[in-house]
Amino acid sequence: SNLPKVNENPRSHASIISIIIILAGAIALIIGFGISGRHSITVTTLTSAGNIGEDGILSCTFEPDIKLSDIVIQWLKEGVIGLVHEFKEGKDELSEQDETFRGRTAVFADQVIVGNASLRLKNVRLTDAGTYKCYIITSKGKGNANLEYKTGAFSMPQVNVDYNASSETLRCEAPRWFPQPTVVWASQVDQGANFSEVSNTSFELNSENVTMKVVSVLYNATINNTYSCMIENDIAKATGDIKVTGAFLHAFYMDLLGKE
Ligand SMILES: *[C@@H]1O[C@H](CO)[C@@H](O)[C@H](O)[C@H]1NC(C)=O
Ligand SMILES: *[C@@H]1O[C@H](CO)[C@@H](O)[C@H](O)[C@H]1NC(C)=O
Ligand SMILES: *[C@@H]1O[C@H](CO)[C@@H](O)[C@H](O)[C@H]1NC(C)=O
Ligand SMILES: *[C@@H]1O[C@H](CO)[C@@H](O)[C@H](O)[C@H]1NC(C)=O
Ligand SMILES: *[C@@H]1O[C@H](CO)[C@@H](O)[C@H](O)[C@H]1NC(C)=O
Ligand SMILES: *[C@@H]1O[C@H](CO)[C@@H](O)[C@H](O)[C@H]1NC(C)=O
Ligand SMILES: *[C@@H]1O[C@H](CO)[C@@H](O)[C@H](O)[C@H]1NC(C)=O
Fold first, then answer.
1. How far apart are CA 180 and CA 213, in angstroms?
2. 181: which of 107, 111, 233, 243 fits an S-S bond (Cβ 3.0–4.6 Å)?
């Protein structure tokens, strides 16, 4: 009832300012549409590697557009006639999709408006490796970027003490690698030491006949030391660590005694 009316004047000022902003925006949009088509937009891809049998992401971003219905995303692969994936007018358009990719692809539909054209690829196959193109059309123009996709298998190694061995032996195991990796051991105490003479690595083909289980043993490990087992091939690198403490080896001896 007794409220002051001091806001009245600022409010009308505010509405004039917002009309000016809207007009300026409309003019900018008209100019923007006028030069569209001649312009190229920035498209950026990011290299990643696919782990066969798992789901992968082919990463691609572009300058966002305010209208989803104006955005067209096409994923193509070198040597493949059909499309890998197409998204336009706010939804998937898969009539020209190559059968190799049927049922295996998706874009993150809710992320397209912020300029994310990344493709999710289900159940990655070895043959999915190759050169992909992420091609984008928006009301601002068009653009594309290529992506080299590598495929293989990689997994984290687990390092444990080998209770069955007669000397202090560490055992590093990783279930799935392809192509065949190299295994290098390192120790925090003897940095730069070469453990190739005191270790032994073997590879065992898994039942699908592609990936292999990696087992590496390190003999004569010392107490109060941290060891790393590093597995690497041309698509991935993974390291497992183990800290060998006095208490840890005590547990090891207690375990042996317990077996008697
Ligand atoms: C795109 O969106 C997906 C799903 O949210 C996300 O996992 C991915 O990291 C995004 N990619 C980029 C490049 O932002
Ligand atoms: C130790 O030997 C047992 C029985 O032979 C076997 O089941 C187990 O896998 C072995 N452990 C390691 C780390 O080799
Ligand atoms: C370690 O020594 C072996 C031979 O004993 C050699 O083939 C290998 O290249 C050496 N590794 C490094 C990292 O020096
Ligand atoms: C481990 O140490 C023992 C005793 O020092 C030695 O006889 C054996 O050769 C060593 N093993 C390896 C693989 O170097
Ligand atoms: C390495 O392991 C293989 C298979 O387990 C075995 O045949 C070979 O004798 C081992 N080599 C050494 C130097 O321990
Ligand atoms: C793997 O190879 C073996 C021997 O060559 C064969 O008997 C088996 O059927 C193969 N498995 C698969 C899944 O191809
Ligand atoms: C390991 O470290 C502990 C504590 O730092 C020390 O008491 C012990 O003597 C060390 N053991 C060896 C074998 O160096």
1. 10
2. 233
Distance from the CA of 100 to the center of ligand 1, in angstroms? 24
Backbone angles phi, psi at 210, to 5 degrees: -120, -60
β-strand partners of 161:
170
b/e per residue 198-211 (b: at least 16 CB within 10 A): ebebebeeeeeebb
Q: What's the rounded Cα separation, in Å, for the pair 155 and 161?
A: 19
The pLDDT tens digits of the residues spanning 68-122 come to 999 999 999 999 999 999 999 999 999 999 999 999 999 999 999 999 999 999 9
Residue with tokens 């590879």: 203
209, 210, 211, 212, best to mutate for ligand 6 pocket (most atoms within 8 Å of CB): 209
